[in-house]
Amino acid sequence: MSLVSITEAARLTGKSRRTIQRYVATGKLSMSQSDATGKSIDTSELIRVFGNSLKTDIDDDTPSNVTMSRSVTTKNDAPDIEKELLKQELALLKERLKDKDAHIDSLQKAMLLIELKLPKDTEPASEPQPETTTPAITETVTPVVVKKSWQFWRK
After folding, report:
1. CA–CA separation, 140 and 155 (whole Å)
2. Domain total for the chain?
3. Residue 136 reports pLDDT greater than 50
4. For residue range 82-123, what is the model confidence (pLDDT) as tens digits?
5. Which H helix or E strand runs over 35?
6. Would you say residue 43 lies in a domain?
């Protein structure tokens, strides 16, 4: 097979020159070196590493801008897709709202059942009030000021 330079190998494989150089450096791709041609790569090596999908020279009579067919959404399709997604989200939220309402209804029914089982005449228990007694004051008590260790300025 023929020998090509790194630049030509990059053009044939569709990779960058740096990628070809990296493959040579790591040993994935072998390079031959001669005095007449310098560093070159055999095309059979390119086929071994990158497969049979090497690019060949393009004839001059073919158009220079070739379009590839792929699934592209046009600007007109974007609102339709967005509308469909919003409809799905709305349906999901309505379903969640129905579930929430059903849960609230079941909790209300449970509360009614609990209230029906309580005796009718029970009122909330009042807290016992302490008896109010007035202490007999016989002598005057002066409060004792307790000084903490960090309150060194107090007298």
Report:
1. 22
2. 2
3. yes
4. 888 899 999 999 999 999 999 999 888 888 888 887 665 555
5. none
6. yes
